[in-house]
Amino acid sequence: MTVDFGRTSTDYTRHRAGFPDSFFDRLVRDNVLRPGLRTVDVGTGTGVVARGLARNGCSVIGLDVSASMLEGARQLATEAHLSIDFREAPAESTGLPSASFDVVTAGQCWHWFDRPAAAREAARLLVPGGRLIVAHLDWLPMPGNVVEATDALMNASNPNPPDHVRFGCGVGLYPQWLSDVTDAGFTPLETFSYDVLIPYTHEAWRGRCRASAFVGATLPPAEVERFDQTLARILSERFPQPVLAIPHRVFALLATRP
């Protein structure tokens, strides 16, 4: 089964919430982000992290292997009046010059990479003292909540996805990433995590779920439609409130190039 987020780029662009402002606020408060930094956002997708970097005054190059995702990223950046240089390139071999960047970011994508190769490439790109930021924003299934019901439907609709689709599901913490960056020579390391509620309408939640690896990126169109209609019925019957407060966990690993 092939995972192709390009198949769901429309839903991804419209409905997939990005990292909350509090994530970028913390990086600014800790002096990790500041105006003028040269940054590269690998696995940028629709540019969620790239736009956050640009809003905080950084110069940004956003890289992804999906042309359709980059098209969505350019659209959203234009609508936000942000200048970002989006390019088609993999995280493991960016083609960018060595020791030329202050920050490399990877948001919601590290598990899709050849992780050791991506870590080595990040180390190559960064100046001494530069930072690699690996971050995730995962929804949290809890007993009786809408995420638990959605996860159950996803598992029933796609019982045999590739292993990396399930990676980290349900916990939102990724201590294994520390080994990846340590092996690439990064030190010291720092992590933080916190929980946040993100509001979704029924329409937006359905779109967000269609944009997931379990659904739109792997299933045939007819099965995506069947999933979507079943989810709509579950929301109407069991979670009728018009705006759903979806619990998420932010996790970030900050690694410094010596």
TrEMBL record:
GO terms for molecular function: S-adenosylmethionine-dependent methyltransferase activity. Belongs to the methyltransferase superfamily. This is Methyltransferase type 11 domain-containing protein. Residues 40-134 form the Methyltransferase type domain. InterPro entries: Diverse_substrate_MTase, Methyltransf_11, SAM-dependent_MTases_sf. The keyword Isomerase does not apply. GO terms for biological process: methylation. Gene3D superfamilies: Vaccinia Virus protein VP39. Keywords: Methyltransferase, Transferase. It comes from the Bacteria.
